[in-house]
Design a protein that fits this description.
This protein is α/β, with parallel strands linked by helices and about 325 residues long. Helices cover about 40% and strands about 20% of the residues. α8 (about 230-240) packs antiparallel against α9 and α10 crosses α11.
Length: about 325
């Protein structure tokens, strides 16, 4: 069995995907790289995927499919993965050569244990265009590096601190056992990927190394306000994936409530910034839906500091949010 599968969604990625693949190949021979060509039509992405497969047939596999969006490409990668672990790496991102040895040594060691870790957390780097200083996001204040942890061993996350896709490497069977199915034909599915499988995660390890480089500023990246507003549909899935208190470790429940509150607040902010009365209604419906799913979960989400601020009533509340943003 391969140690890790890197699932790489590729959509019209010809201009930058070679760098991504080159950094992944440096991880060694016991890895798998799945290049999921998601119906690319505007450039040579499909041909580049095939070229990498031809050059490294024991490591790289090209998968071509009709366009299903980022979520659909990730779903395909997870379904096809043969590695013990799986990590999603977007085609315009890459992994850090100085962190590779530490990460792969940790994952390789799991082959020899009866209780392998279910999730590896590593730091990630915001690589912004034309910016020399790179922001490194770490979790050293909430996780002790180097030892196996449970959810109740984690500290308190900061007001806007949470674990995203770029920081995560899952044991493949855990993701499959969770039944994760990402929405297709949509952007920003990363927060659902970084949420839904967590109740199936029992053993966690954190490495204080900057493994993932998240490239920001490429023309065409999907950060528009209207795209962010569409998150409201995905928050329903997050809400439905939230376990009731007492059914999972308390540390996990607290974290999931914290993360659900953050994402609800982020989406609410963009709904308010749109200045569209129809979106104000969507904001109200978003919070009402959480309450309707579970009054207890709704109460806990609304009790978070940011949630209280985002739900100040009327024009005054919206004015405070716009000026605070």
């Amino acid at each position: 069995m391969k140690t890790i599968t890197f699932a790489v969604p590729c959509y019209n990625s010809a201009a930058y995907m070679d760098h991504c693949v080159e950094t992944l190949l440096a991880c060694g021979e016991d890895i798998e790289i799945l290049l999921v060509d998601d119906g690319s039509t505007k450039d040579d992405t499909a041909a580049i995927c095939d070229r990498w497969q031809n050059e490294h047939p024991d490591i790289v596999r090209a998968i071509h499919q009709p366009n299903k969006g980022h979520g659909g490409a990730v779903n395909t990668g997870i379904a096809a993965a043969t590695g013990m672990y799986v990590k999603v790496v977007d085609a315009d991102d890459w992994v850090d050569p100085q962190a590779i040895d530490t990460v792969l040594a940790t994952l390789r060691a799991q082959h020899d244990t009866d209780e392998p870790i279910d999730m590896l957390v590593t730091n990630y780097v915001y690589d912004k265009v034309a910016k020399r200083h790179k922001t490194v996001v770490n979790f050293r204040r909430v996780m002790e590096a180097g030892r196996v942890l449970g959810w109740d061993d984690l500290g308190k996350f900061g007001l806007a601190q949470y674990i995203i896709m770029h920081a995560l490497t899952f044991r493949t069977q855990v993701v499959r056992d969770s039944g994760l199915k990402l929405p297709e034909h949509t952007f920003y599915v990363d927060f659902y990927y970084s949420y839904q499988p967590f109740p199936w995660v029992k053993r966690i390890q954190y490495l204080d190394v900057p493994f993932y480089h998240y490239f920001i500023g490429r023309e065409g990246q999907s950060v528009q306000t209207d795209v962010m507003i569409k998150r409201v549909d995905q928050l329903r899935l997050m809400t439905e994936a939230t376990p009731e208190r007492g059914t999972v470790p308390e540390g996990l429940y607290r974290y999931m409530i914290h993360f659900l509150a953050i994402e609800s607040c982020v989406t609410s902010t963009f709904l308010i910034l749109s200045r569209d009365p129809a979106n104000y209604v969507k904001k109200t419906e978003l919070w009402d839906a959480i309450d309707a799913y579970s009054p207890a979960i709704g109460k806990d989400v609304r009790s978070q500091l940011m949630s209280r601020a985002l739900n100040l009533p009327g024009k005054t509340g919206r004015w405070i949010v716009r000026n605070g943003y």
